[in-house]
Design brief:
This protein is an alpha+beta fold. It has two domains: 138 residues, 3-Layer(aba) Sandwich (Aminopeptidase); 170 residues, 3-Layer(aba) Sandwich (Aminopeptidase). 36% of the residues lie in helices and 30% in strands. A twelve-stranded mixed sheet has the order 1-2-3-4-5-12-6-11-10-9-8-7, with helices on both faces. Helix 4 crosses helix 5 and helix 6 packs antiparallel against helix 8. 40% of the residues are buried. The structure holds coenzyme A. The site of coenzyme A (COA) has 20 residues, from strand 10, helix 10 and helix 11.
C-alpha cells in the first residue's frame, strides 16, 4: 500500500531506515550507520516541516518498506525558467521490489504533474540499480555521472601534501562583494564549453548551462558559501573556488566535513596550476573546521580529477543524475 507520508509517522520511519538497502552519504565512509540514520531522519523531518516537500511511503505488513521524498526547487526554477522538482530520497528495503518503486514514482509524477511541475530531477547512487531501473521505466533519462571526492585529514596529514608550484605573480586572497561582477563574467567564459547535466539535457532552455553557474556564484556571495578564494595574477582575477563549512544539521550529527562546491579558472590561465593551488589553499583553511572534505565532479572531468588525486583526495562515491520532463 502506498500512502502520503507526514511527520506523524516519523517514528515508524525511524524503525524502517536501517532496513533500507541504500543510505545517503556513502562516500563519507567513516560515518557510523546510526549517525547517518540520525542525520537522514532529521533531514527528512526538516524538509517536511519546511512545507515545500512531499513524501510517500510504501507499507508492507504495517511496516514501511519504501520511501520517496521530493520537493520544489526554487533555485532550479530560477535558472531553468520553469518549475522544477527534485526527488531527494527514493529508497526501498530488501530486494527493492520493482512494483513498489513503480508505485512510489507514479505518485510523484502524478502529483508533480497536477502541480504544474515541468521537470523532475533525481540523483541516485550508482549501485541503486532497482531505483535506476524504476526511473528509466518511467522515462527518466541519464544526464551525467558525478564522482564524489573525499579528503581525510585524519588519514593523510596536510603537511605531507606537496604544495603545488605557484605561478609567478599569483596572489591568493578571500573574495569580497565587489568581486562579484568580475566573477560572474569569468564564470560565463569558463563554463562556456561545460558538459554537466544542464548542458547535456537537450530539453533545457538555451543558456541554462551558463546561467546555472552564474547563479551559483551569486548565491555563494549571498550566504551559500562560507568563503570564496580568488586567484589573482597581476591584480587581475584569474580564477576562484567556493567553500562551505558543515551545515547546522551536519554539525548536529558530527559529520565533521567541509565542502568545496565550485571552481573556475579563466581559459587564458587553464593548465597553469591555478585550480590545484586554489584547492590546496582551500584545504588549508577548511582543516581548521573539519577533518574531512568532499567535492563532487563530473566523471569525465579529468583536469579536476588529476589535481584532486595529486593532492591526496580519493574517489569515494558515484552518483547518476536523471531528468524527466513532464508534458505541458
Ligand atoms: C577544470 C579547471 C578548474 C581546471 O583548472 P586549471 O587551473 O586549468 O587546472 P590545473 O592547471 O591546476 O591542472 C590540473 C590538472 O589538469 C591537467 N590539465 C589542465 N588542463 C588540461 C587540459 N586541457 N588537458 C589535459 N589536462 C589538463 C593539468 O595538467 C593538471 O595535471 P598535472 O598537474 O598532473 O599536470 C578549469 O579548466 C576550468 O575552470 N574549467 C571550466 C569550469 C569547470 O569545469 N570547473 C570545474 C567544475 S566545479
Amino acid at each position: 500500500m502506498i500512502a502520503p507520508f507526514d511527520l506523524t509517522a516519523i517514528e515508524s520511519l525511524k524503525e524502517a531506515l536501517p532496513r533500507f538497502t541504500h543510505r545517503p552519504l556513502p562516500h563519507l565512509t567513516y560515518l557510523k550507520p546510526d549517525q547517518i540514520d540520525g542525520f537522514w531522519l532529521d533531514d527528512i523531518a526538516q524538509d517536511l516541516n519546511n512545507g515545500n516537500s512531499i513524501a510517500f511511503a510504501s507499507y508492507h505488513d504495517d511496516r514501511i518498506n519504501g520511501l520517496v521524498l521530493y520537493g520544489d526547487s526554487p533555485w532550479d526554477a530560477k535558472v531553468v525558467g520553469k518549475s522544477v522538482a527534485v526527488i531527494k530520497y527514493f529508497v526501498g528495503s530488501g530486494e527493492d521490489d520493482p512494483r513498489m518503486l513503480n508505485q512510489l514514482l507514479d505518485e510523484v509524477l502524478q502529483r508533480a504533474g497536477s502541480r504544474g511541475i515541468c521537470l523532475v530531477t533525481c540523483k541516485v547512487q550508482s549501485l541503486q540499480f532497482a531505483a535506476i531501473h524504476a526511473l528509466e521505466r518511467h522515462g527518466f533519462l541519464l544526464m551525467d555521472t558525478l564522482v564524489d571526492f573525499v579528503f581525510d585529514f585524519s588519514h593523510t596529514s596536510f603537511d605531507k601534501i606537496t604544495p603545488p608550484q605557484r605561478l609567478s605573480g599569483l596572489n591568493v586572497r578571500l573574495a569580497n562583494p565587489e568581486d562579484l561582477p568580475e566573477l560572474l563574467a569569468l564564470t560565463e567564459i569558463a563554463f562556456a564549453q561545460h558538459f554537466g547535466r544542464y548542458n547535456s539535457d537537450p530539453e533545457m532552455p538555451a543558456g541554462t548551462g551558463s546561467r546555472v553557474y552564474q547563479e551559483w556564484v551569486r548565491s555563494s556571495f549571498g550566504g551559500g558559501a562560507d568563503w570564496i578564494l580568488i586567484a589573482e595574477i597581476n591584480n587581475r582575477i584569474a580564477g576562484y573556488s567556493v567553500w562551505k563549512k558543515a551545515s547546522a544539521l551536519e554539525v548536529k550529527h558530527s559529520l565533521d566535513v567541509g565542502h568545496c562546491t565550485l571552481a573556475a579558472i579563466h581559459p587564458e590561465f587553464f593548465g597553469r596550476g591555478l585550480y590545484t593551488t586554489l584547492t590546496f589553499e582551500g584545504m588549508r583553511i577548511t582543516h581548521q573546521f573539519a577533518n574531512h572534505l568532499d567535492a563532487p565532479t563530473h566523471v569525465s572531468h579529468y583536469h579536476v580529477q588529476r589535481a584532486m588525486i595529486k593532492l591526496g583526495w580519493k574517489i569515494a562515491g558515484v552518483r547518476h543524475s536523471f531528468h524527466k520532463w513532464l508534458p505541458d
